[in-house]
C-alpha cells in the first residue's frame, strides 16, 4: 500500500510540474487578481467562501467552516507570492487563529490557471479547483 501511495504521489507531482510549465510567474500574477470561489470538504469538515487576490500581493478570505451542525464564520487576510510553481500565502489576520494561526504560511503547487479556474495541489497532496467570480 505504501508503494502504491508513493507512485500516485509521484505521478501527481510530475503531472503538476509538467502542467505548470505552460504558465510563467508573470502570467500567474496577471491571472490571479480577482474574486474566486472555493469549497473543500475532508473528513466531515467543509470550508467554503471567497478569496479575493489583489495585484499588490494582498488576499482576503471570507466564508464558513462547517463541522457537523456547527458553522463558524471565517475571515482571514494575508500576503501572497509565487515562486516557480509554488504559491504561498502568509496569514496576517485570522478569525480562527487556533485553526489558521497568524504568521503561518500555506504553500500550494500550481497546476494551471486561466480566466475561469485555478487548479492546485495543497500541502496535503489533495488537488483543489477555485472558480473565478469576478476580475478586478
Can you give keywords for this protein?
alpha+beta, 136 residues, 2 helices
Plain-language structure description:
The chain is an alpha+beta fold and 136 residues long. It is 19% helix and 54% strand. The protein has two helices and eight strands. The chain has helices spanning 2-20, 25-31; strands spanning 34-42, 45-53, 58-67, 70-83, 86-94, 105-113, 117-121, 127-134. An eight-stranded antiparallel beta barrel has the order 1-2-3-4-5-6-7-8. Strand 3 and strand 4 (70-83) form a beta hairpin. It is globular and about 40 Å long. Residues 2-21 have low confidence and may be disordered.
SSE order and pairing:
Elements: H1 2-20, H2 25-31, E1 34-42, E2 45-53, E3 58-67, E4 70-83, E5 86-94, E6 105-113, E7 117-121, E8 127-134
Arithmetic mean of pLDDT: 85
Strand/helix succession: HHEEEEEEEE
Strand order of the largest sheet: 1-2-3-4-5-6-7-8
Helix count? Answer: 2
Distance between the termini: 46 Å
What is the helix content? 10-25%
What's a quick, concise take on this entry?
With 136 residues, the protein is α+β, with helices and mostly antiparallel strands.
Amino acid at each position: 500500500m505504501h508503494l502504491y501511495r508513493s507512485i500516485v504521489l509521484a505521478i501527481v507531482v510530475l503531472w503538476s510540474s509538467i502542467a505548470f510549465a505552460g504558465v510563467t510567474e508573470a502570467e500567474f500574477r496577471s491571472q490571479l487578481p480577482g474574486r474566486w470561489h472555493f469549497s473543500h470538504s475532508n473528513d466531515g469538515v467543509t470550508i467554503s467562501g471567497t478569496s479575493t487576490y489583489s495585484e499588490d500581493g494582498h488576499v482576503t478570505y471570507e466564508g464558513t467552516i462547517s463541522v457537523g451542525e456547527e458553522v463558524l464564520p471565517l475571515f482571514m487576510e494575508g500576503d501572497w507570492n509565487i515562486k516557480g510553481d509554488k504559491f504561498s500565502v502568509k496569514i496576517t489576520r485570522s478569525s480562527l487563529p487556533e485553526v489558521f494561526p497568524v504568521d503561518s504560511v500555506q504553500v500550494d503547487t500550481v497546476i494551471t490557471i486561466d480566466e475561469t479556474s485555478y487548479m492546485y495541489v495543497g500541502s496535503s497532496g489533495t488537488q483543489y479547483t477555485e472558480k473565478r467570480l469576478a476580475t478586478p
